[in-house]
Amino acid sequence: MAMNEKLRRDSLITIISLAVVVALFTFVIYLPGLKSKQQLNKQIASIQEEIRAIPTKVEQLEQLQKQLQQREAFITRMKKHIPTDKDTHRVLQRVAQLANSSSLTVSSLNPGEPVTYATYLRQPFTVNVSGPYKGLIQFLNGLDTDRRLFTVSNLMLTSQNGKNTGLVKGTVELSVYVLRDTESDFSDFKENRVSRSFLSTDKR
């Protein structure tokens, strides 16, 4: 009987010892190791995802570089059409010359408020013209193909005397541009309005 109790006690101690060992292994070695493994797997998955994304990022960088080159080329081309000096008289003279060569009569050519940007200035003008419709189209084409950059933002037309004679009156809102390398404003455009006599006689 005493021997059986001793065996039971030894068995109980053995079981308890094994349970302690299993608990220690579980909480000290297995679970921390499992957590570390999971973290490692997450890191590996993240790295793999970054590696898979490299070709896309390279392609995006190549596209950005291509766009940058295109913009630089565009700026280089535009600099040929956007001077760094205002040359007021030449601008007014050129608009009048294009109108006159298109058989248009310019009744007024008035500057608006200049608009300042980081690297350039935009000076709007309002031009009132009258003449044949074909001449107006020729005038607009002349502005579009001129060596200096002109842009047309608005065009309003009416028939002369309300008759269908092929003659029109028009108001053209256009702009010219100047790089800000050496100039600070367009103040000399506003010194005076352009007279009808200048527009009709200055055809050089």
UniProtKB/TrEMBL annotation:
**Which keywords accompany this UniProt record?**
Membrane, Transmembrane, Transmembrane helix
Q: Which InterPro entries match?
A: PilO (IPR007445), Transl_elong_EF1B/ribsomal_bS6 (IPR014717)
Q: Which GO terms describe its biological process?
A: type IV pilus assembly; type IV pilus-dependent motility
The organism's place on the tree of life at top rank: Bacteria
Q: Which regions span the lipid bilayer? A: 12-33
On whether Transferase is a keyword of this UniProt record, the answer is: no
Question: Could you list the residue ranges forming a coiled coil in this record?
Answer: none
Quote the PANTHER family the UniProt record gives.
FIMBRIAL ASSEMBLY PROTEIN PILO-LIKE PROTEIN-RELATED, TYPE IV PILUS INNER MEMBRANE COMPONENT PILO
Q: What's this protein's name? A: Type 4a pilus biogenesis protein PilO
